[in-house]
Amino acid sequence: MDPLKPNLDENSATAEAYNVIDIEASGFGRGSYPIEIGVCLANQECHCFLIKPESSWVHWSNQAEQIHGISREIILTHGISVREVAETLNKLLKGLVIYSDAWGQDQSWLMKLYDAAGMWPNYKLETIRSLMNETQLNHYHSCQKQAQDKLHLRRHRASSDARVVQYTLSLVQQK
Predict the structure, then answer these.
(1) β-strand 46-50 against 34-40: which pairing, if any?
(2) To which H or E segment does residue 35 belong?
(3) Coil, strand or helix: which one is 77?
């Protein structure tokens, strides 16, 4: 079984699925940049892109690397260009609304990617908070723990995190 496409119980199978994005970065705050983007679409299709940094992107946080486990060497060796990532995201997400659990950070990193690529996103990024009422917001963290336990995704990587957020939203909808 593919852990990014779990067998959902019958209640969550009826819940609406959302398009979700997650971004891992070189660090936190000023000077940081996206190094991996994961997208899980409502149809359960997931994509993940390692990003080769632009030559001017030099900020690196060892603390961030310890969290996501992606070394600068890995992105330099296996990353793809910002242009290719931006083009692929625009093809995958054209006209869609895509949700983030860290909208402020992810918006900043996406715009840094698109600016470097000389492009604009053709989709809309929204916060997951807009999908939940107060009761659901209060249950989000317990549902997230449930989703993590169900999915068995222990790696802190962009596509895994996007899938956990997506599944968490399906559980929260039942509240």
Answers:
(1) antiparallel
(2) strand 34-40
(3) helix
Instruction: With beta carbons less than 8 A apart as the criterion, state whether 99 and 131 touch.
Output: yes
Structural domains present in the chain: 13-172 (3.30.420.10)
Q: What residues contact 32, with CB distance under 8 A and at least 6 apart?
A: 25, 26, 59, 61, 64, 109
Tokens representing 133 are 């009422």
What is the distance between the alpha carbons of residues 134 and 116, in angstroms, rounded to a whole number?
38
Cβ count near 155 (within 10 Å): 11
CA–CA separation, 52 and 29 (whole Å): 19
Show pLDDT as tens, one digit a residue, over the chain (175 residues).
Answer: 344 444 444 344 446 799 999 999 999 888 999 999 999 999 999 999 999 999 999 999 999 999 899 999 999 999 999 999 999 999 999 999 999 999 999 999 999 999 999 999 999 999 999 999 999 999 999 999 999 999 987 667 899 999 999 999 999 999 8
> What does pTM read for this prediction?
0.89
